[in-house]
Amino acid sequence: MSTDPNETYERIIAPIEDRMMHAVWRITRDTDDAEEALQDALARIWRRWDAVCAHPNPQALVLRMCLNAACDQLRRKIRRRRTAQVWSRLAGPMPVAPSPADSLSLSEKETAIFDAIAKLSRNQAAAVIMRLVQNQSYDEIARSLGCGGATARKHVERGRQRLRELLGPLEETP
């Protein structure tokens, strides 16, 4: 294995840069958030560069680190939004409840889905996104998460079940 960091970077990171950005964007669905999450991921990768290079599948580890950074970014955004809502309630009158038509808007459904994903455990969120969004095999998921195939299947299964529980009210609306 080469000891030149530039050569190693070109071998590990350069071929998957587009996949890294796409994976982060699929979670955040916001260009600014995706860029911030990718920068966080790259900083984490740099801090753990020796571990990344020594990993049996460094590209899978890098993609997992990107997914984790995107989930962290989404969680931060949700926390900021909730904090802003609390402060706005304290500062002014209570907001008027939205009409049923407004509550069914697509953007609110997307927000509910992203909020539900943020409530999953880190492994479940990564496994569900890798399986359902990126169409990766269970073997790829297992390698990326550093677990066995059966465990990867369990993460997907439990993540999907938890999403069904959390998103049940969306399905019941007419």
Descriptive account of the structure:
With 174 residues, the protein is mainly α. Helix content is 80%, strand content 0%. It contains ten helices and no strands. It has helices at residues 5-12, 17-28, 31-47, 49-54, 58-91, 100-103, 106-119, 122-133, 138-145, 149-172. α5 packs across α7. It starts with a helix and ends with a helix. The mean pLDDT is 83.
Structure in a nutshell:
With 174 residues, the protein is mostly helical.
Report the end-to-end length measured between terminal Cα atoms: 59 Å
Quick one: CATH class of the largest domain?
Answer: Mainly Alpha
H and E order: HHHHHHHHHH
Strand content: under 5%
Q: What's the story with the biggest beta sheet? A: none
Number of domains: 2
Mean pLDDT: 83
Please state the overall shape, judged from the principal axes of the Cα atoms.
globular
**CATH fold group of the largest domain:** Rna Polymerase Sigma Factor, Chain: A
Percent of residues in helices comes to: over 70%
